[in-house]
User: Which sequence fits this backbone?
């Protein structure tokens, strides 16, 4: 289970007021469910996920993974999550298998147990043919598969995927959806972020709409339709995230419209 | 320890497959010794050929039979200089020419000064011995004539030479050779930094550039273990490169036919002593390189930073020699300068004591610890982990 409780992150900027990347984000992602973090670019999704995966220290608020605090127990948190981060670079002189094996060994998995897991993930991700090739020259989809396999090598109970479908073709996106469904069937807690409505509605049991560093709505698809009074999810999304923006514009005028943290 | 071993193994495997590092090892380390020694050898043998041959170029032989007679008595071989000697000296084809003007002999007999010109270009260092020989011969002849004139007038020659100068050259052959072999410390020092440079940059700025640092730090490992693994790989690389280079010198000196005898011993004992200095130095410089490369968002940016360090390090031997820094304890405390001093002492055959190894080692350990601690602080900073070009 992944819990965010009033998480906030302000970045210091020289000579200017702090940049507010995340103002107040709270949500709970249950085990055996897929939770979608939906929001436009710059809404604060990546920063929120980085705080939950312990790479960024929150300015205020709390986060808990399976009850362990992200600040006090960072090692245990890291051990119980698998993260596909915003940056997902591979070592191009190593083969796909060696890339995945490296992460396995860093997490203390070795020998035949490790090789069995690599083969299992390769089967799941349909990447057996790639395994023993050097990752130099891999397509974006191929690189993504390796990055996901390496994030899941320790069979984590909680999975965080930051914009996993970015830049992927239709086929790879489909197989990624399969992987996410499979994880849900295994009872894992999956959180993934996206700015694409269709993706979230196709997969998620629970949708958290984030806009300008705040959660503006949470619930399943039907709930979102109900509270927005719209007939399609896309319109509901536009309406709800837009409402967030107008709300903030009147509320807090120094709020930057794109507060995206340190992303490239 | 598992994390350390895993990181170390991965960095070594990764870099072995990198053509840049392999080329570095082959070209820089194995060839350095033989190439430098061959260059030095041909330079030194040219010098000594000239010094031993005692050949002097003379223009206007017919004008000065008595001077020629003196030259020959000194054991010099007289060579008739060509008509265009001035141009030849300018072009560097002749080192020095003694020119006797017509009427030289008549002036001498009349008790006046015989006109002689010495034509040379001292900007070429290998011309030095020839110029010195020509000048000594002309001066010697002048002195002899002067002495004879005084004796003819019944005056003791001691009247004009109040001082008796005996030249005693105390630079033993071994010390002279160390001057020439300042190349050995210099190349060793430079390889101590360039040897593992590619690995140092790849494991820091390279991780940032590839976007592999963020996912790497998501693993539940202690940052210091990660950095120690990387640093050990860098140190191993640099040490291998440096030891191969020193080995190249030893093997070339021991087994290749070197035309002149270099009166310097650089054998297995010196190999061992050099290694004791070079390996800790390489480890320290590896940590420094990793630290500054961590600031680089890309391999290229980090390379620029690294080039500053290389420049500083490669100037140290030159400063020590040309700034005539005297061997002293304080040098041992200064990284690189201390190593250079001990290298020179080993080569000159001077006494080296325990302090010559302990002090640089302690300094290396200290600097390394500081650098690795700073790297671990940097790698917690958001702008380093997420800031990419």
Assistant:
């Amino acid at each position: 289970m992944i819990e965010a409780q009033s998480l906030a992150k302000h970045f210091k900027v020289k000579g200017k007021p702090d940049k507010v990347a995340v103002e107040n984000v709270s949500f709970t992602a249950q085990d055996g469910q897929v939770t979608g973090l939906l929001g436009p670019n710059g809404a604060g999704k990546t920063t929120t996920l980085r705080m939950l995966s312990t790479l960024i220290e929150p300015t205020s608020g709390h986060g808990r993974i399976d009850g362990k605090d992200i600040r006090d127990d960072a090692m245990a948190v890291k051990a119980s999550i698998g993260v596909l981060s915003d940056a997902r670079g591979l070592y191009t002189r190593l083969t796909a298998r060696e890339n995945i094996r490296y992460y396995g060994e860093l997490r203390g998995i070795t020998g035949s147990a490790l090789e069995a897991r690599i083969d299992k993930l390769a089967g799941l991700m349909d990447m057996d043919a790639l395994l023993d090739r050097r990752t130099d020259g891999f397509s974006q989809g191929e690189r993504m598969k390796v990055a996901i396999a390496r994030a899941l090598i320790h069979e984590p109970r909680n999975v965080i995927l930051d914009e996993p479908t970015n830049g992927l073709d239709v086929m790879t996106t489909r197989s990624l959806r399969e992987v996410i469904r499979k994880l849900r069937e295994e009872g894992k807690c999956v959180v993934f972020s996206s700015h694409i409505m269709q993706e979230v509605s196709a997969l998620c049991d629970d949708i958290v709409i984030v806009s300008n560093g705040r959660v503006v709505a949470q619930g399943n698809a039907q709930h979102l339709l109900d509270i927005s009074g719209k007939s399609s999810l896309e319109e509901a999304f536009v309406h709800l995230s837009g409402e967030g923006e107008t709300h903030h514009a009147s509320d807090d005028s120094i709020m930057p419209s794109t507060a995206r943290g340190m992303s490239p | 320890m598992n994390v350390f071993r895993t990181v170390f193994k991965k960095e070594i495997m990764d870099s072995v497959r990198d053509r840049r590092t392999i080329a570095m090892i082959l070209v820089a380390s194995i060839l350095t010794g033989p190439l430098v020694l061959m260059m030095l050898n041909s330079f030194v043998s040219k010098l000594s050929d000239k010094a031993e041959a005692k050949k002097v170029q003379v223009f206007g032989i017919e004008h000065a039979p008595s001077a020629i007679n003196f030259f020959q008595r000194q054991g010099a071989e007289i060579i008739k200089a060509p008509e265009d000697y001035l141009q030849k000296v300018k072009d560097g084809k002749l080192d020095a020419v003694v020119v006797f003007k017509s009427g030289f002999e008549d002036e001498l007999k009349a008790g006046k000064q015989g006109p002689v010109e010495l034509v040379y270009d001292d900007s070429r260092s290998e011309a030095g011995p020839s110029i010195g020989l020509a000048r000594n011969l002309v001066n010697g002849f002048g002195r002899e004539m002067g002495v004879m004139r005084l004796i003819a007038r019944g005056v003791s020659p001691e009247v004009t030479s109040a001082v008796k100068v005996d030249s005693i050259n105390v630079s033993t052959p071994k010390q002279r050779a160390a001057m020439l072999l300042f190349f050995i410390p210099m190349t060793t020092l430079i390889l101590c930094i360039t040897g593992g440079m590619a690995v140092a940059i790849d494991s820091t700025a390279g991780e940032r550039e590839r976007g592999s640092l963020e996912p790497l730090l998501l693993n539940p490992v202690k940052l210091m273990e990660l950095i120690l693994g990387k640093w050990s790989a860098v140190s191993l690389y640099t040490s291998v490169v440096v030891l191969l280079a020193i080995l190249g010198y030893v093997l070339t000196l021991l087994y290749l036919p070197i035309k002149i005898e270099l009166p310097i011993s650089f054998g297995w004992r010196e190999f061992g002593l050099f290694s004791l200095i070079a390996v800790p130095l390489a480890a320290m410089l590896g940590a420094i390189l990793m630290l500054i490369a961590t600031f680089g968002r890309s391999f290229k940016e980090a390379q620029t930073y690294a080039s500053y360090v290389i420049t500083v390090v490669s100037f140290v031997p030159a400063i020590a020699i040309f700034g005539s820094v005297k061997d002293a304890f304080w040098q041992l405390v200064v990284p690189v300068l201390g190593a250079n001093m001990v290298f020179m002492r080993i080569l000159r055959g001077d006494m080296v004591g325990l302090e010559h190894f302990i002090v640089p080692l302690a300094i290396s350990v200290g600097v390394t610890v500081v650098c690795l601690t700073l790297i671990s602080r940097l790698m917690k900073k958001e702008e380093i982990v997420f800031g990419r070009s």
In short: The radius of gyration of chain A is 19 Å. Confidence is low (pLDDT under 50) at residues 244-264 of chain A. The longest strand of chain A covers residues 19-29.
